[in-house]
Design goal:
about 15% strand, about 750 residues, alpha+beta, 6-stranded mixed sheet, 20 strands, 5-stranded mixed sheet, 28 helices
């Protein structure tokens, strides 16, 4: 796995970031080793309810400890990036032409790319050091220690040379006299683009809009090159580690932005190593009491015998006997993960503080391992998830399962290949340079099984969530609207894929509705949406979609609809849908009344009740009535029943009232139809609510030459409206044509013969 130290599942399980691994894999200079061994273990220091952590890069601030790894082995050195960087900077003579200050960066880089060119790093360091010379962080450290620490974070995650070069230079344009033209002339267009992407906009020019517009600029740049966001995440991580001298209120403000924007972006890009440490740092600042309680739980667990050790040994024995070469490790949960588990399960047991990670060589070994463990141990079926066959949207792959131990505790297990582990830890950083097809910068990407020629996965360099974000941000020139919409978008912590009936797919956040699917597929043309079918069934627009659903959005002709209802805002989850709906409502203030906001009054068209001349009954002289519960028309099979006053009521043979009267012992009377005579029928039209629907249906009926005796429109329910018409047909043969004409009216999805329940036999 190179120097990527640990991992977790995409659900926020345990991992230790690269700078906290138990056994450093990157050789260090003597000065760096001295700094590491002499560094106090301040990882859990919290003073006055705040954590020593920095602001944005460019604001020098003293170092504050990162969260302590919950189960770090005693006696093993932990790399302290700040002290190591400073020791390397101030250390001995340079080795050849390579400055000693970047020796640790080079060694970490060479662990991933043995043949990587080093000259760009040397030149980038020389320019950065000379440009920042004389600048100090608020801690009193030389400012160059910041880009060095950021670059080391990326080097240990496996970033390629171009990213590391840009990382060393990421603050030069923002904080020194170096210009983008100079960077381009010296290092080329790629490095210049990355540096420009992470360069903040000036508050002098943008005022209060500087922060949201900086993020907008950065996200647009990320749309063209995901390495921009990799550098920003590493930059924010080091700044959060050194947020110490800031006032508590400023710490809280920076932590909230990190929580709302940077952590979700790290999750979406799959950079779990950075995400989990950022979560712990934010947790300590925003929830100091819960943080202290969690530290106490971890300390108490550390004092007890290793709860998962025996299970790990048993796993190793089983896999060795099965001939499966595997590395079995205990992955301690980080602070936030322990806190979440404690909320979910209450009192924690030893196995709750970590998970077992099994690393194997090939995909097939993952399933073989799963089979052996499920055979030899009691599996907890509800805990099984297969993220290898169905990877998460952020590149994550792994098998998740759990087994019950003899003592009753449940041990959670992650099974993955070494390559999957690297991707789970480093996400898009593990892609190397995803924009090249060869060379040292893409060697890891070429080996990654997440890049498939068949195209069965979304391009990891432009995932669905990023494409959606880039689309809707163009429609939000207002910085406040953009900032609010960005946080709403990133608050969705999971993505689903739904299928269109034309064979395409839509990536949507979890909780998205048919309204979101409509705007994702059709853009502003979705204003004409009148309904949807999900998996072949008609549903309301408010229906929440699930992963794997097939969605068919129903659109009315644009000339027959006046646009979306304000109620749609209650169902829309994506910023793109909400922005489009709000824009239309603002542009059409007179149409803000929802089409189905008020109950429809009953519309009755008066008309003389004609005699029933098309029915002959076997009772001479009897008055004939057509039953209102089933309204039979030729050529329906019919039966008659005598009622009070000597009249005969004619029912359809399948009418429910016929069964009740027959069961009551009433004798039916023979009835037959007379051809080419008028008849009366009751039809029910089911439709989606929209303006002018009643007028359109009435017009369609009139065109067919049918008289409306009465029409009733029921109050809408969940966007659906039911129309009931009592109609006088000049000829029963016209009924099928009439029903087809009514179904063609936009918004109408079904027309049927009325079936009214009869409370009692007539």
């Amino acid at each position: 796995m190179g120097s990527v130290a640990s991992s977790t599942g995409a659900d926020g399980g345990s991992r230790r970031p690269p700078h906290r691994r138990s056994t450093p894999e990157v050789p260090m200079s003597p000065e760096a080793q001295d700094a590491t061994h002499s560094a106090p273990d301040t990882g859990s220091t919290v003073a006055g309810g705040t954590v020593d952590s920095s602001q944005d890069a460019g604001d020098p601030a003293p170092h504050a400890p990162a969260s302590q790894a919950p189960a770090r082995r005693r006696g093993r050195p932990r790399i302290d990036l700040r002290r190591l960087g400073r020791a390397a900077l101030l250390g001995g003579a340079s080795r050849g032409r390579l400055p000693d200050a970047i020796g640790h960066v080079v060694e970490a880089h060479r662990a991933h790319y043995p043949d990587a060119p080093l000259d760009p790093l040397r030149r980038a360091y020389v320019l950065a050091e000379s440009s920042h010379r004389g600048q100090m962080r608020k801690s009193g450290e030389p400012y160059i220690t910041h880009p060095l620490a950021v670059t080391l974070i990326l080097a240990e995650l496996g970033a390629e040379t171009t990213t590391l070069t840009a990382s060393l230079l990421h603050d030069t344009v923002e904080d020194t006299d170096v210009t983008l033209d100079q960077v381009r002339a010296e290092f080329g267009d790629e490095v210049c683009y990355l540096v420009d992407g992470v360069t903040k906009l000036e508050k002098v020019d943008y005022g209060a809009a500087a922060e949201p517009e900086t993020f907008r600029k950065m996200l647009v740049a990320t749309g063209n090159d995901v390495r921009v966001m990799s550098i920003k995440l590493a930059d924010r991580l080091h700044n959060m580690r050194t947020l110490g001298v800031m006032r508590p209120e400023k710490q809280a403000r920076i932590a909230k932005v990190t929580r709302d924007v940077l952590i979700p972006l790290a999750e979406r890009l799959g950079v779990q190593a950075l995400k989990t440490e950022l979560e712990d740092l934010v947790f300590a600042i925003l929830h100091p009491e819960e943080y202290r309680r969690t530290r106490t739980l971890l300390a108490e667990n550390a004092a007890r015998p290793d709860s998962l050790g025996e299970t790990v040994d048993a796993f190793r024995t089983v896999l060795r006997e099965a001939g499966i070469s595997a590395e079995v490790l205990v992955r301690p949960r980080h602070f936030v993960s322990v806190h979440r588990v404690s909320i979910k399960r209450g009192e924690l047991r030893g196995a709750d503080f970590g998970r077992i990670l099994v690393l194997v060589g090939e995909d097939a070994d993952c399933y073989a391992t799963l089979g052996e463990l499920h055979t030899c141990f009691t599996p907890v079926v509800s805990e099984f998830k297969d993220f290898i066959a169905a990877p998460k949207f952020n590149l994550y792959q792994s098998l998740h399962t759990a087994v019950a131990r003899p003592d009753g505790e449940v041990a959670e297990v992650l099974i993955r290949t070494h390559q999957m582990h690297k991707v789970a830890e480093a996400g898009v950083v593990a892609l190397g340079n995803p924009y090249t097809s060869g060379g040292e910068e893409s060697q890891d990407a070429a080996d990654g099984d997440w890049i498939r020629g068949e195209g069965e996965r979304t391009d990891p360099t432009r995932p669905g969530w990023l494409s959606r974000l880039l689309d809707w941000q163009q429609a939000t020139p207002d910085p406040d609207t953009f900032w609010r919409s960005l946080r709403e978008e990133l608050a969705q912590d999971r993505e689903i894929t739904v299928y269109r009936t034309d064979g395409g797919t839509l990536g949507l956040p979890a909780g998205a509705s048919c309204v979101d699917a409509a705007y994702a597929q059709y853009g502003e043309d979705a204003h004409a949406c009148i309904g949807a079918r999900v998996n072949g069934r008609l549903v309301t627009l408010s229906t929440v979609l699930r992963d794997g659903d097939t969605v068919h959005v129903l659109l009315a002709p644009l000339e027959t609809t006046s646009g979306p209802s304000p109620d749609w805002l209650d169902h829309a989850r994506t910023p793109a849908a909400r922005i489009a709906i709000r824009r239309w409502l603002t542009a059409h203030p007179d149409d803000r009344q929802a089409p189905d906001a008020a109950p429809r009054p009953q519309l009755t068209v008066a008309g003389a009740r004609p005699q029933v001349e098309n029915v002959v009954v076997d009772r001479p002289g009897a008055t004939v009535r057509i039953a209102g519960c089933c309204t039979p028309v030729p050529p329906d099979p019919v039966l008659g029943f005598a009622v009070r006053g000597g009249a005969v009521t004619v029912h359809r043979a399948e009418c429910s009232a016929v069964g009740r009267m027959t069961d009551a012992g009433r004798e039916p009377i023979g009835v037959r139809w007379v051809r080419d005579a008028e008849c009366r029928v009751t039809l029910t039209a089911e439709s989606f609510g929209r303006p002018h629907l009643l007028a359109d249906l009435t017009e369609a009926i009139a065109i067919e030459g049918v008289a409306i005796v009465s029409a009733t429109v029921e109050p809408p329910a969940e966007g659906r409206v039911r129309h009931t018409y009592s109609l006088q047909l000049p000829d029963a043969a016209r009924l099928p044509t009439l029903m087809r004409a009514m179904r063609k009216v936009a918004g109408v999805y079904d027309v049927s013969r009325a079936q009214h329940p009869a409370a009692a036999a007539p």
